[in-house]
Amino acid sequence: MVDTQDLLTVSDVAKRLKVTVQSVRLLIRDGKLRAERVGSQWLTSQVDLQDYIGSFNVVIEPDDHERLSSDVPPIAALSFFSGAMGLDIGMGNAGIKALLACEYDKACRMTIEKNNPDIALIGDIAKYSAEEMLKMAKIPPGRKVDVIFGGPPCQAFSTAGRRKAFDDERGNVFLRFLGIISDIKPTYVVIENVRGLLSTPFPYKGSAGPIKGGALMEILDRLRAMGYSVSFNLYNAAYFGAPQARERVVIIGKLGNEKVSYLQPTHNENGAGGLKPWRTLKDALDELPQGIEHHYIEFPEARLKYYRMLNEGQCWKNLPQDMQKEAMGKSYYLGGGKTGFLRRLSFSKPSPTLVTNPTMPATDLAHPVEDRPLSVEEYAHIQGFPPGWEVCGSLLDQYRQIGNAVPIKLGEAIGRAIIDDMDGIKHEYRGFKYSRYKDTDEVSWAKLMKKQIRKASTEAKLEDVL
């Protein structure tokens, strides 16, 4: 028997794991946590507790805490909705290091703590005042915050969801984020979000009801009322060196009357304009160490049957005609191209957008030649996470965190744009097409919105008359 000083009671274990005493008793009963009955109580050792944590990938949520070090770098930044820290890593690579991370998700918080234990960590954005956040980050009174960046929860604005915008609880978190920006007034603000933000309906001044793009208009109005000049565009991460065709809206605000230039591309689809060609899935996968152990969710056998008939780059449409309805089931009658169903990826192109689960039927991400989805190791490398970056939690937690992350190369491009602006470097916009879509920059988009607003205002007046 180990030293009694090394033993933990059920109550001790519950506190360590941040669960109830009853939950610990169930772990002991089910044989997941080794323990020994001594008198009237169960005792377990430190070693046995660590074995349980390691064997079952237990995520123990870290407590909120202030930053460990006290020195403040030349550029002081705060990160919100930090996730697995994809945007943080990219911004850091460009020279903008966050001193505080705000993240509510348990697994994400563990990932942050595991890889960046020095950073101040807070959870619920609504529980802290701006003053308290600065204190946690050890930014002294009078020291200007240079940058606040973050990607507020995108589900409220996603084209794939119901898009309630600010009527959604997560949309209200977005408003709280804007409130923190207003209180702290950093020199620069970065807001990253999904393409759906460009068209999310929301009531706007004088409109009879929600109008497309109303949510973004509300955000822009609030930023401009705070004194920010705003530029934004829809950017495909492949143009910045990511081996992934992921499109995201990036809004950059700067205090004063000058806008920050658009991001500077480093790659182009075919290497046009003196830029490097897009990086492909093959480029990314070939960089992984030989013999690496891959961890992944299994496809159901019922779908593997069809995957075995498909070659690289093919999908359900390449199955024999008489098998397509069988393979797709009711989804066969859905509208759209449905090219995400039973999809084997192509080595010769960038990966499609990494989703939070590579085995979801409508957004399959199957390996080009192996009968499995992309592994979490492949996910992490495609997103650009550095070797040794540990994503915590269950396999599904890891996929979700990596799938939600900002590609590191896109984060670097955002950081470089801000650093260039700090150095007085302006880049002329030459009409570069950053995505598949048109009218996604703030100037072109505003022209479309003016038409929408005029139409909505007219309808509102008609309603008043009628």
UniProtKB/TrEMBL annotation:
E.C. designation(s): 2.1.1.37
Annotated keywords: Methyltransferase, S-adenosyl-L-methionine, Transferase
Top-level taxon of the source organism: Archaea
Principal EC category: transferase
InterPro entries: C5-Methyltransferase, C5_DNA_meth_AS, C5_MeTfrase, C5_meth_CS, HTH_17, SAM-dependent_MTases_sf, SinI_DNA-bd
GO terms for MF: DNA (cytosine-5-)-methyltransferase activity; DNA binding
Family the entry assigns: Belongs to the class I-like SAM-binding methyltransferase superfamily. C5-methyltransferase family.
Protein name per UniProt: DNA (cytosine-5-)-methyltransferase
Species for this entry: Ferroplasma acidiphilum
